[in-house]
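Predict both folds.
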Amino acid sequence: MRSPVRPAALIQAHLDTLEAPQRELVEALQKLVLAGAPTLSQTLQWGNIVFQRHGRNAIGIAAHREHVHLQFFNGQALAVQFSVLEGRGRGLRFLKLRPGQPLDDELVGNLVRASIEELD
């Protein structure tokens, strides 16, 4: 019988497919998300790293050709407090980041913590 592929292996395989500038940004975001919410689990969905809490999608990292989105599945509730979030629709909002630009660790940490508080 085959053993299932572990999420960590899937995530590492996904990171290995990214070009260096995007991979570095995705890895930095991954560390910041886990630093702000260490109890989140990680998986790969829709070709993106997705952080879950109690089986619910909370935060995602989506790498695009020219930028990376830090996605908040409950972002609509955060948009009033964090005007830097982009997007429309029922729930998802994102922070658009470009490789090579400075990363605002404090902003990302605040967004992560606010997102998790909103889930509780």
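Second protein follows, with its predicted structure tokens after the sequence.
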Amino acid sequence: MADLAADRDAIRHLLACYTYSGDRGRIADLAACFASDGTLEFPGVTACGPDQIAAALTAGPANPQRSFVRHHVTNPLIELDCNQAAARSYFTVYSNNGPDHAGTYNDRLVRTAQGWRFAHRQVRIDWQCNDSLFRPMVTR
């Protein structure tokens, strides 16, 4: 029988690894949070597999004014079904200008030999400030 508390803790750890890796520009580590056929979907982009995910996240120039990024993830709601799981979380992103954008992560996860990994992560943006240091990306 699966240990639900340990699985939920491992999934929360994966959510944190994704966030810390992205905020620190460790894109290969972020991409490693995905299963080999995992998908990252965010406004205007869908990438499959760690290599495509890393390429998608490094495509195009970064805003040179943006030197500080912190994602704050809250209220992860995790539902487990043996070797699969679903999670939904809120996030708020802070940059040099303060609150920059906010939205939800909608995740499907799978247990792999390496531990829990994203099978699919959908990033939805609910709000973005007018002077955002990121490209326009509101999806609601």
